[in-house]
Amino acid sequence: MTTPTSPSTTTPPTATPATFPRLSPSNIHVLIVGAGFAGLTAAIECDRKGHRVTVLEKSPHLLPLGDIISFGQNSSRFFAKWLRRVSRRWTRWCTSTTSSGFIRGRARWGGGLRGGGDGGGGEADGGCGACCGGGAVEGAEKGDSHTGWIGEDVHFLAAAIKGGKEMSWVCTHKDEGSIEESWQFPGKIEDVLRVVEGWDPLVVELVKLTPPERLFYYKLVFRDPLPTFISPQARTALIGDAAHPFLPTSIQGASQAMEDGVVLAACLDKAGKGKVQEAVRVWERIRYERVHKIQQTGVATREQWHKADWDAIWKDPESMHLKREAWILDFDAEADAYARYDAVREELESENGVRS
């Protein structure tokens, strides 16, 4: 029998300066309301930067709810940085008739992440469902998959996660209903079946297999951009969907929420305790234009899908490919914040005629 030399995997290793480096205490106290993607990212990054953090969250439990959430490479770089203390990449494996184990190295962290959130939107109404059990989609039996179907004013996305043990789907379609009563309410299987009538039998069967109690409608409604993300005295900031809700077709809502948190922590680090208000103002200037430009990509993608010219697509299938633009994905928000901070601060000072 070979005995593994790796640490126990039942208890996460204690964070040390080598595995989860933190800067010296800044004496800045950050109060975060809401443990969403933006709030948790801000909390982790502020902790790394030496700030004291308090997080307030009204929900007593973190539960999977609704939509399919994805993270672009612009935000996955943050996970890679954080997870060093709980991850290992195993380089050798030993087995015997009585035991097996990892030898050394770090395992690559991975898996499905699912969450729910109210995106910004258009005149679409999204029905979200979750179906537990195998067999609904062939790919689910073989592992994780993400499949999409597109039609006039409708698109349907289905994701199999956890090795095919769970599935979720979202159907976005044109809707003329009222939103006076609620942003979210129970959905009806028969309503979705009417929307996908005549579609791929795979889609129809997936909808039929969805437990009715797990189907919800989420209204997606356009919002005008907020004139500012910060309070008049620059001591409070809105981040994530609270500041800039995204259409799901942007595929950047969660990533931009995370960028908000990373950049805010970096700005506070650059400014220091005596200039918190300066940091908040610089943060807003750095983030404002970028998030609004990326919001527009969601509108463009939805129109590309819902108003597709199928004759043209048959001639050029690549015209339907997602535009994975480098200025969005090949972007290090933290490095950019540190690089631009001083120039943005000087720009604000020049505009105001006084120091921030």
UniProtKB/TrEMBL annotation:
Key word Oxidoreductase present: yes
Location of the region described as Disordered in the Swiss-Prot/TrEMBL record: 1-20
Keywords assigned: Monooxygenase, Oxidoreductase
Family matches, as InterPro entries: FAD-dep_Monooxygenase_BioMet, FAD/NAD-bd_sf
Entry keyword Oxidoreductase: yes
Biased amino acid composition, Low complexity: 1-19
One MF annotation (Gene Ontology) recorded for this entry: monooxygenase activity
Domain of life: Eukaryota
Pfam short name (any one): NAD_binding_8
Similarity comment: Belongs to the paxM FAD-dependent monooxygenase family.
Protein name as it appears in the record: Uncharacterized protein
Lineage: Eukaryota, Fungi, Dikarya, Ascomycota, Pezizomycotina
